[in-house]
Amino acid sequence: MKKILIASILFFLTLASYAQNFNFGAITYDDYEFDKKKLDSNANAVVLKEFGTTSIQQDESTGHLEVIFEHHVKIKIYNKEGFKEANIVIPMYKDDSREETISELKASTFNLESGGFVETIMDKKAVFTENRSRYTRLTKFTLPNLKEGSIIEYSYRLRSPNLFNYKTWEFQGDIPKVVSEYLAYIPGIYNYNVSLRGFQKLTDQKSEINKECLRLSGAAIDCSKMTYIMKNIPAFIEEDNMTAPSNFKSAIYFELAEVQNLTGGKTSYTKTWKDVDYELVSDKNIGAQMKRKDVFKDLISVITKDAADDLSKAQTIYNYIKKQIKWDNYYGIQSSDNIKKSLESRSGSAADINLSLIAALSAANLDAEAVILSTRENGTINKLYPVVSEFNYLVAKVNIGDKSYLLDATEPLLPFGLLPLRCINDQGRVINLKKPSYWIDLKANQKTITNYILNGKLTADGKIIGTLTTLTQGYAAYNKRKEILRYSSPEEYVEKLDERLTRIKILEHKIIDLDSVENVLTEKYEVEFSINDGSKDQFYFSPFFISAITKNPFNLNERTYPVDLGAASDERIIINVALPSKYELVEKPKDLAIGLPNAGGKYLLQTKLDDSTISMSQILQFNNAVYQPEEYLYLKEFYSKIIQNQKSEFLLKKAN
After folding, report:
1. Which residues are the signal sequence here (predicted)?
2. Whole-model pTM?
3. Are 59 and 194 in the same domain?
4. Which of 174, 182, 257, 305 is the most buried (most CB within 10 A)?
């Protein structure tokens, strides 16, 4: 479980360690000869030293306060796989009126040549920026003259107008670190909630008073000087089936709680949910848009004219919004302008679309609410105190009878009541126009279900011909529909599929309910494929050619964060192949029945030869959407047994 430390920045700890920066370019032979085995013998690169400092200073030209962040790092590269550590990306916040900027950027590569270190300075022309989203800009550069054994070093200063989000410091990264040090200067008029997250512990920390660090309106202000040090830090290894790495990396976070005004009094930023509810409901781009039933006043009777009950009304309105407004791929919890404009332009952000959905449902006299949440890649919400900036997405909730349905109309291929997987992340906060807000679990209400059925026969010339039927539901159907519709037609999709299947030839195809997302997606293929080479009297045949498991997705010795599949799943494969004459079964895959602890899932395999028909039945079930770190080794062993068993084949010999 995540370890979270909440401390006042004024809490004084007396320890012996002090963080300090190091001189740029002071490369030593100890740096060059550092033995990575001290940390991780498999490491491709190691951070030798890392130092950061953040302070709040006054801009002399504007008089405005700003956050100043300085970062300095030195990295040893061991092999070509470690070269990627020289590709640096620095994210920066921006909006219409404010943006973060970078200055004093230095970057060099050091190589040992003829007994001395030669520095290659990065050309400033190698630095470029990229607009990643409406609120994020990236500064990118790559260090030059990389060789196996190089040491790279870079430093920069970032200026930010955003005092609310004091700079987060990540002690843990994708490569091991010898030492990571962070120094935070916080003026006494500011009080931040400080959170240490992750599984690695601080080696040292210290708090002391730094006199007159800032002067405002002629008043000298003291600072709390906070020092945090972590040593011998293992790399954070990302695997599949996880939410945002920021949920689990060891890092220190700062959230502005309170400001002491120089003229007296305090401004509190750590609010209650009652305060937040009032702000959101009163917000012209959230609550005011939820109330815009007038936008749909003349439309709603036409939209719902054939709906027999409230559920049918909700489904009809949901489908209407999905078709009417195209998502522009922007997230957010606020309408970018207003929902009337989005409806007219037929384009909008996730908030525009789902606030339109809420207003339309309300116009039909249905009980609709908003749910604000943090997407999987954005991280989980700290529930100890409300911080609205942590939420980055908004969906709708409609209550009909004793059931509630979570809806996101940004994805035309999702059925009613199934949220996109990006939204399945811990809990969301339900915002009601008249009642207090509350938490709700964000769970997939459908399993990911896939069934494969092959009925075929073996011909005299050693080919299997037959019908392969695939049935998908839930996220499996959504993903398959999305894949098919990337092509200009289903025929082109099948053509490309046929090209990818090296041993299987598709002769005929039929795809049913491609556009009817509430129904099971059915694919039927008339197929032909050759079995393994062999004589007509004896041959090998592997039944594991459909959805074969060849690679274990879990390879760590230990995983400190959950395995998050997003949804429970059920996959079934049935194969029946009629043989042209009598055969004896000499060898076959071992029947297998294995399960995960606490009924967490199972794998069942049965194979047999009966009345000249060879058959296989396989079931793979995961009954939980999330598995805890202590269940990781069970999952790893579970997959290992399946993979080992799927290496076996049928050996059939013609009967005398």
Report:
1. 1-19
2. 0.85
3. yes
4. 182
